[in-house]
Design a protein that fits this description.
Elements lengths: L2 H12 L15 E2 L8 E12 L15 E12 L2 E5 L14 E3 L3 E4 L4 H8 L8 E3 L18 E5 H8 L21 E4 L3 E2 L6 E5 L8 E7 L3 E5 L7 H6 L9 H17 L2 E4 L4 H4 L7 E2 L2
Parallel strand pairs: 4-7, 7-8, 8-9, 13-14
Antiparallel strand pairs: 1-15, 2-3, 2-6, 3-4, 5-6, 10-11, 11-12, 12-13
Length: 291
């Protein structure tokens, strides 16, 4: 692993110690109600990350350029239960208005807690049935402690890396997820149909980390959406298939991106890039929802 790769991996593991092909269209969202729903997708604002040198995400390109990334996480409500997909930056960051800067490279802000957004949509985090984590980097697991009873759905390679003898080797820090080992867990070895009807499917998408995964959601009114995890961080990298220098496996990352591009085409789906600020500005956030 290069010096830069090591630096970024350390960064990604330190955040929590504080506490489509192309862009998506803009489908219509609905205001939340208290009625029992059919399939719904809520989009939460789970923080922002200011990047002082964007070339860390595509080596050799954009040296010294600044970029702001968003950090999105999602609640999918199904008649058979609810799935939380990623949990963003830690809510504790709201107590640092100026943000937390690490290595003079990344500055992280939280202006609205995930816990408060759950209250707005009328769901209690401790009643959520499933917790799907795209991967175990710190900006995706910031609030896993809110979901102590949810069954963790994770690729077996990611779980082994996160809870094995050398988590730091993969950019993971167990002190960032001290409660997660107590959650019930279902280890995955490929794609997984969460509710058994094809509407919410975890897609194996290796490369960024040993067991990275994405989430496919078939919304009857909105259409088909794939939630990216860190398959890619923003649209430019998706369009050009740039791979960050800190990815676990570059060749696998490229293969996965090409496979996902074909999957999107075959399934008439759009890619919602979880860190792409500009794309997310066109996506309605909770308490509105997609169905």
């Amino acid at each position: 692993m290069s010096k830069l790769a090591s630096l970024v991996s350390v960064l990604l593991s330190s955040v929590l110690i504080l506490a489509l092909t192309g862009c998506a269209s803009t489908p219509t969202a609905t205001t939340a109600t208290a009625t029992s729903p059919n399939l719904r997708l809520y989009v939460f604002n789970c923080g922002t990350i200011d990047v002082a040198d964007i070339s860390v995400f595509h080596p050799g390109i954009g040296k010294g350029e600044h970029k702001r990334l968003t950090d999105s996480c999602y609640l999918i409500v199904h008649p058979k239960g609810a799935l939380m997909w990623d949990t963003g930056l830690p809510d504790a960051l709201i107590n640092i208005p100026e943000g937390k800067t690490v290595y003079n490279l990344f500055t992280m802000h939280v202006t609205k807690t995930l816990a408060s957004q759950f209250k707005e949509v009328g769901y209690a985090p401790d009643t959520i049935k499933y917790l799907g984590i795209s991967h175990m980097h710190s900006d995706h697991i910031g609030n896993v402690n809110l979901f102590p009873h949810a069954t963790l759905l994770m690729q077996k390679e990611e779980y082994a890396a996160a809870f094995g003898p050398e988590p730091a080797k993969f950019g993971f820090s167990p002190e960032n997820y001290p409660t997660l080992h107590a959650n019930p867990v279902k280890l995955l070895e490929g794609d997984y149909d969460v509710f058994g009807d094809g509407t919410v499917v975890i897609k194996r998408a290796l490369g960024h980390t040993p067991g990275h995964q994405a989430l496919f959601v078939k919304l009857p009114k909105t259409g088909n959406v794939l939630l990216s995890g860190d398959l890619v961080h923003f649209t430019e990298n998706w369009e050009h298939k740039y791979v960050p220098g800190f990815n676990f496996d570059k060749e696998q990352s490229l293969k996965t991106m090409n496979d996902v591009a074909q999957f999107l085409k075959d399934n008439h789906a759009v890619l919602w890039i979880q860190h792409d600020l500009e794309q997310n500005e066109g996506i309605a956030h909770a308490p509105k929802y997609y169905e």
